[in-house]
Amino acid sequence: VEERWFGQMCETLLRDGRSFAASKAVVIAVPLAALQRGDITFSPPLPDSKRAAIEAFAIHPATKLFVAFDAPQWEPSATFLAHTGTLCRWFFPPSSSEAVAEAYITADRAEAVDAMDGAALTSLALAELATLLGKQQAELAKSHRWTHCVSWANEPHVYGGYASVRPGCLEDCRQALAAPLDDVLYFAGEATAWNSNPQTAHGAIESGLRAAKELQLRA
Description:
Helix content is 32%, strand content 28%. By secondary structure, the chain is an alpha+beta fold.
């Protein structure tokens, strides 16, 4: 992808030959890893200060594991449980159709989970849930329906789950990453959420609202 920005115009050129033009501005809301890898080429190139802000972050893996059962294996009041295992954080979202437990895994634990096959993941999930819920693994296995894993590190064009500031980088690098360029390029994404909740999905949403407000003020 190539992003051409000049004057008060911006043009996006896609690899399949399509192009889109914006008469005023564009919001760059892609995963930070895509900018670090150079998946988007900017013409003219981004200034050194913006490149430094982009490179100030480390990208970490994040994975979600969904495990479905014939019926809930947890108390109706349960919403979240945590322990020190590999699948250390479990959520139990309410559902009218399926009983699904959801594990959220990050950093080194996510790398370990991403390397497992489906059978190993199911076995690990049932073993750790059995410990958390005070049940036998064989009992959970009888009610188990399916297991599904989503790894953001392995998703094309995503390459990771969240960004953290590298040691020694400036404290204001999130603000520097979020700062608009020439009132033409605006930036959103969880890494730019300097005034809300970085490293979270709601922080990414809030950064989009912030970029939209910046555009409104520009107009």
